[in-house]
Amino acid sequence: MPRRFMTRSRKVAIVGVSLSDCGRVDDATPYALHAQAARRALADAGLDRSVVDGFASAGTGILAPVEVAEYLGLRPTWVDSTSVGGSTWEVMAGHAADAIAAGHANAVLLAYGSTARADIRAGRRTGNLSFGARGPLQFEVPYGHTLIAKYAMAARRHMLEHGTTVEQLAEVAVQARANAALNPEAMFRAPITVDDVLSGPMIADPFTKLHCCLRSDGGAAVLLAAEEYVADCRTAPVWVLGTGEHISHSAMSEWPDFTVSPAAVSGRLAFERAGVRPTEIDFAEIYDAFTYMTLVTLEDLGFCPKGEGGAFVEKGRLRVEGGELPVNTDGGGLSAQHPGMRGLFLLVEAVRQLRGEAGDRQVRGTGGQLPRLGVASGTGGWFCSSGTVVLGRS
CA-to-CA distance for 23 and 3, rounded, in angstroms? Predict the structure, then answer.
């Protein structure tokens, strides 16, 4: 296909998505997982890699997109290496959509791969408890304030101010596992109960083990393209309707309110730019390294008022089967997979849902119709950053 450059604003669609092998992958490198996911996403779209003139990646080193693009045999003329933690991929998707709309690129590939689990198993690394001890973090690390402890402290503040209970937080894990039970690609599918969550080993009060995400291997890839490429694709387009991004803090002392995440801003921007309201959304894919993340992000995206997230997650509202707002339909980071930075997996699952390709976990409305609108919202660091993407099908 010849390259097509335009000066007017173009609509942008996600035309290809895929996961690499995920879960327990002991015999692959992160680069191999990048390549596997990228090949599968291109095959999903039915496009050749020669159409890719934009590339975005993070997580493999200081030259991440350069190193991975070289491994993939790509020579892009547009590149992004934004790295803001788990929200990286939603932020990158927004940047890519803007570039395509402006004519700076035609087809942008986002790719990620990690062997976080296999590396620890093989002794190539240890479980990191913090992100370093330089810059602003030097004032917190000496006191043993780990990543998990930061999320736990924020959860405790929400419990203090709004009466949120540990049982309500546990409900998030229970419903994520119920969704994972419908997903053959999920690592953990056996049902769990609130009592199972509460009786587990304590990690950081109030989080027991099942309040925390699993550690897996895996990769993902998403291909975005300009509207004029859609006719050449094998799959139905999923349109990027609106995006938003926001950063909040690094040091906990600079976080104005532990009960408000940066999704309050990124979500508002994404919905405004998409011209839709939270009440119109059919499902949500939300970064869930810990149960509290799901609860507070639901509030900040506008699915329920501030302080009412605990009540909102009760009564099975997040389940694919019978839920009012299915959330993390693949099982999320709590049960499906979590290889380091999971934001790209949110976009893959959202696209599969909108295309009707989710199998037993497919979200359907009254009369069995497919969902029309979905949202993916990623969080990075310890609520340090957020990226939100609103997606819709034709």
Answer: 37
Residue 379 in contact with residue 265, Cβ under 8 Å? no
Q: Where are the alpha helices (DSSP H) in the chain?
A: 30-45, 64-72, 88-102, 116-121, 147-162, 166-180, 194-198, 263-274, 291-300, 309-312, 332-335, 343-355
Question: How many Å apart are CA 108 and CA 96, to the nearest integer?
Answer: 6
d(Cα 259, Cα 185) in Å, to the nearest integer? Answer: 33
| Other beta carbons within 10 Å of 3 | 11
* Residue whose tokens read 């939270």: 278
Model-level pTM greater than 0.85? yes
- Closest Cα partner for 267 from 391, 375, 108? 375
Alpha-carbon separation of residue 61 from 72, 99, 143, 305 (angstroms) = 16, 24, 28, 40
How far apart are alpha carbons 352 and 320 in whole angstroms? 14
CB count within 10 Å of CB 299 equals 23
Q: How many CB atoms lie within 10 A of CB 305?
A: 10
Distance of alpha carbon 105 from alpha carbon 70, whole angstroms: 18
Convert the pLDDT of each residue in 45-78 to its tens digit: 999 999 999 999 998 888 889 999 999 999 999 9
Contact 377, 267 (CB under 8 A): yes
